[in-house]
Amino acid sequence: MRKILLATAATACLALTACNGTTGGDADPKPTATPSAGQPTTALPSATVSPSTSTGSGSGNGTGSAAQALGTSARTVGAKFVGIVEITPTTVVYAKAGGGQTSRYGTFVVVTTLDTSLSANAADEETTDGTGAGWQWIGSNGQTVSEGKGNAFKVSIPGYDSLGRIEPGARQNRAEVFDLTPEQAKGGTLVYTDSTKASYRWKIPAADAGPEVAAVKQRLG
User: Fold this and answer.
1) Angle at 101 between CA 95 and CA 104, to 5 degrees
2) pLDDT tens digits for 12-61?
3) What is the pLDDT of residues 93-119, one digit of tens each?
4) Between the CA of residue 156 and those of 94, 178, 210, 221, what are the distances in Å?
5) Secondary structure (H, E, C), the chain
6) For the whole model, what pTM was predicted?
């Protein structure tokens, strides 16, 4: 089913590109567009995550697929089945407070991502809305927490606070924030579920990691 949806999305994108009189080079998976002003620049990794095996539950837990390393890209179907978004988790930072907020449960886990639109249509991530789509954290103790719970939704990080649709060929730096107990924050698995209910998983280390740790800490305050 997912292969059919991806093929349909790709066909629609090619048709639209042809109508606009552009060439196939415009859909290069490593576009030359730069991040918005004030945003950090992150190189795109070459590896790509495969979606997890569908469980039929739509739970977003990513059962059936081994978690990939931080810094690995995943090509996902955009919100409401529109466009293709490549998502690359780049950095993780653990903090008790940030953005003027204190963690309700003990620890904020901030994971920055680089999102790139690879299609001829503007595209966006799925939101975490209780349907199983969007972002989740599975702690090393097996507990699952959705993005934005506790005080996490109040944390905004300048340079990583992009929202909304990403225009074709553009990229954005974003941050997913989780408010976790100390037990849940001992490393874990980051899960993203797209509009087709396919889930992508990344293994997140139990300590700060990634090329943007210093920048994220500075902007957290």
Assistant:
1) 75
2) 433 333 333 333 333 333 333 334 444 554 444 434 565 653 333 333 33
3) 999 999 999 999 999 999 999 999 999
4) 15, 12, 19, 11
5) CHHHHHHHHHHHHHHHHHHCCCCHHHHCCCCCCCCCCCCCCCCCCCCEECCCCCCCCCCCCCCCCCCEECCCEEEEECHHHCCEEEEEEEEEEEECEECCEECCCCEEEEEEEEEEECCCCCECCCCCCCCCCEEEEEECCCCEEECCCCCHHHCCCCCCECCCCECCCCEEEEEEEEEECCCCCCCEEEEEECCCCCEEEEEECCCCECCCHHHHHHHHC
6) 0.75
Pairing of strands 199-204, 68-69: parallel
With a cut of 60, say whether residue 128 has pLDDT above it.
yes
Residue identified by tokens 């790709």 is: 10
